[in-house]
Amino acid sequence: MSIRIRELVSFFDERIPSSLSCEWDNDGVMVCIDKEAPVKRIMFTLDVTVRALEYADAHGCDTVISHHPLIFRPISSLSCFLPENVSAAAAIYAVRHGINVLSYHTRLDALPQYGVNDTLADIIGLDGREPFGPAGEVIGRIGMLGKRMSFQDFCLEIKQKLGSGALIVTDSGREVERIAVLGGDGKDFLKSAVLSGADTFVTGRCSYNADVDAATYGINVVEAGHFNTEYPVLASVEKLISSQFAGFEFVYYKHDATKAV
Fold first, then answer.
1. 171, 175, 176, 178: CA torsion to nearest 10
2. For residues 80 and 89, is the Cβ–Cβ distance under 8 A?
């Protein structure tokens, strides 16, 4: 099956609407040279780097779908000189090689069922989940584990389920049952997790100061890695596409720029 890139974009605009995006975000269509171009092979990646695009080109992919936007901050010039603007260099590569780039960021965080945080909640096994977050950014999820666990046992389970090489944790001395999750950078969601009644907050990265505050708030924090908490959503996006279209070929670029050593 072959569809036009405009048809895929329209599908995403309907199923992952821009109304879900945070005001400060920039997501959606990043690069599209010809809206009538056919889409046959799609590559999923968390980040759109030149290396990711080289991988897409080598594997015959005409379209790249990412979570993190290729263009997040304004670009003042299209130049391949580095380190002035790595996003510009990646955009130039995509244009030269005829690769469409679509990025769905905070709207994919907030998306029910197929989004980042519902995917993360599914992996952890949370029931009765509800959205949470600060005003204007209610994109996290909070729910019940269904069983009470020691914090140590819960951390071991998280490492296994998310494939995290290492965790950064704050142990407030509480058992784990009501859990708030926010894939990626969660430092701005800690207070909302506390106010939502969570005993444990699972995120990708927090911050030292937030972790110190968490001990005073009496909430456990598990930093499982930015990449580890967001990469699983790419398989959910594949499921979303496959619910509407058949016959696509899918490729995954799995590269975490950060390592636990």
1. -110
2. yes
pLDDT 10s digits, 196-237: 999 999 999 999 999 999 999 999 999 999 999 999 999 999
3-state secondary structure at position 144: strand
Residue with tokens 């444990």: 200
Q: At what angle do helices 116-124 and 151-162 cross, to 10 degrees?
A: 120
Q: What are the residues facing 170 on neighbouring strands?
A: 221
Give per-residue pLDDT as tens, 137-182.
999 999 999 999 999 999 999 999 999 999 999 999 999 999 999 9
At 260, list the tokens: 């636990």
Residues 6+ apart with CB under 8 A from 76: 85
In a 13 Å sphere around the CA of 162, the CA atoms on its Cβ side amount to 33
Closest CA to 142 of 152, 151, 133: 133
All domains of the chain in start order, with CATH: 3-108 (3.40.1390.30), 111-229 (3.40.1390.30)
Q: Are 56 and 99 in contact (CB under 8 A)?
A: yes
Q: Let me know how many helices (H) and strands (E) the chain has, helices first.
A: 10, 13
Per-residue tokens: 52: 């990711």
| Alpha helical stretches, state H, the chain | 5-15, 50-58, 86-96, 106-110, 116-124, 151-162, 190-195, 208-217, 226-230, 233-242
Helix (H, G, I), strand (E, B) or coil at 69: coil
